Amino acid sequence: MKHANLSIFVPHAGCPHQCSFCRQQVISGVETPVTPEQVTALCKNSVAKLPPGREAEIAFFGGSFTALSRQTMTALLEAAFPFVEKGPFTGIRISTRPDCIHPEILALLARYRVQAIELGAQSMDDSVLEQNKRGHTAEDVKNASRLIREWGFSLGLQMMTGLFGSDPEKDWKTAEELAKLQPETMRIYPTIVLEGTQLAQWYEKGIYYPQTLSEAVTLGAELLGFFEERSIRVIRMGLHDEPSLSRSRIAGPYHPAFRELCEGWLMALRAEKILKKQGTGHYQMGISLGGVSKMLGHGAFPVEYLQSLGYNIEIKKDAALSGLDFWIKDVENASAQLGNTGL
Predict the structure, then answer these.
(1) Helices (H), 151-251
(2) What is the domain range of residue 316?
(3) pTM for the complete prediction?
(4) In terms of DSSP H, where are the helices of the chain?
C-alpha cells in the first residue's frame, strides 16, 4: 500500500538554538508557523484529495515540535486528532530535538495518537555538534532514542554529512552510532550553505569548505546501502526542491534528484564488486524499469564509471526486476549469470 504524508511545517518554532546551517523558512518554503485553524483546513483539504486506500499520516516538520509551548503543541495536536480518530489518517508524525524528549511529553503525544518521532541527531560527534551550535550532545540522542522506543513510538533519525568540523570518517561514525539505536527510518541530508547563516559567513571567509556533489553522492550511496542492509529504511536523501531554497543557496552539494544519483551510484558500486571477479569484457546488465533513470539519467555517470574500468556495459530493461535489483551476464558466455543483487 502506498504511503503519504500531509506535511505541516512549523518553521524553527520551538527551537531554543540557532544552528550554524539552519534557515527553516528557506528549507520548508514556509515563512510563519501554522495555526490550529490552518491545520484543520489543511486536513480537510487533504482528505478530499486522498485516493481511496492510500495510507497517510499527518506530519509536523520544520521545527522542534516538543519544544513548543505546551499550549501551542496541544492546540496543534487537538486540531489534527479528529482526522486520526475518525480517519482517514492513521496517525501523527513529528520531528524534534534530542534534548526535548522526556516521559511527560511522550505521554501527551501518545494520547493524541502520535506514532512516529523523528530526532534531528545530525551528528554523533560532540565536537561537531558544539561547533555547529546544536545545543545537545550525542548522549542526548541515545537517551531520547531509548525513551522513544520504550514508549512504543516508531523512531526516526536524521543525519547530515559534510557539517562544519566533520569529515567522512566522522560521518561514518555517526551512521554507525545511529544504526545501533535501531531506528525504523533514516533521513540523510548533505550540508547546504544558505545565505543568512553562520555557515555562510564561514564559507565566505574560507573557513568552511562544503562537500562537492561527487563527494556527497559517493558517501550518500554508501550510507544508503549501509542502512538498507540493516533493514533501516532511508525515507529521504537531500533537501526538497523549493523555490526559496534555490534563491538562498550559496554553495554545497544540492541536486533536486540527489537520492536518484545515490541509488545509481550504489548500483554501480555493487556491479563493480561482481565484475571485479570476472575481469574486463562485454557484459549485459539487467535493471528494473524504475532503475533506468538511475543508471542512464543525469549524464549516465554510473555506466560511464563502469566503462572507464574496462567493462563494456549494455543495459537491458527487465520488467521482472524491481527497485535496485539487477543481474549481470557475460555476453560471450550468455548462459552464465554472474549476480543478482538489490535492496
Answers:
(1) 168-180, 198-204, 213-229, 243-248
(2) 277-341
(3) 0.92
(4) 24-28, 36-49, 70-80, 82-85, 103-111, 126-131, 138-150, 168-180, 198-204, 213-229, 243-248, 258-275, 292-296, 301-308
The answer to whether the bond into 88 is cis (omega within 30° of 0) is: yes
Q: How far apart are CA 214 and CA 233, in angstroms?
A: 23
Sheet containing strand 333-341, edge to edge, reads: 311-317, 281-287, 326-330, 333-341
Same domain, 251 and 290: no
Same domain, 155 and 223: yes
Report yes or no: 159 and 123 within 8 Å, Cβ to Cβ: yes
In a domain, 37, yes or no: yes
Domain end, chosen from 227, 256, 285, is at: 256
Q: Are 90 and 141 contained in the same domain?
A: yes
Distance CA 80, CA 47 (A): 12
Number of other residues whose CB lies within 10 A of the CB of residue 188: 25
- 131 and 169 part of one domain: yes
pLDDT digits (tens, 9 = 90+) for 234-265: 999 999 888 888 889 999 999 999 999 999 99
DSSP 278: T
219 and 286 fall within a common domain: no
Three-state DSSP class for residue 210: coil
Reading the block at residue 312, the C-alpha cell is 563494456
What gap in Å lies between CA 124 and CA 9, rounded to an integer?
A: 26
Burial of 74 (0-12, 13-18, 19+ CB in 10 A): middle
Does a structural domain hold residue 271?
no
Q: Return the amino acid letter for 220.
A: G
Q: What is the mean pLDDT of residues 275-299?
A: 93
**pLDDT at 29 > cutoff 80:** no
pLDDT tens digits along 89-103: 999 999 999 999 999
Q: Say how many domains are in the chain.
A: 2
User: Which DSSP string do the residues of 112-138 spell out, in sequence order?
Assistant: TTEEEEEEEEE-S-HHHHHHTT----H
Q: For the purposes of burial, counting CB atoms within 10 Å of the CB of 285, is it exposed (0-12), middle (13-18) or buried (19 or more)?
A: buried
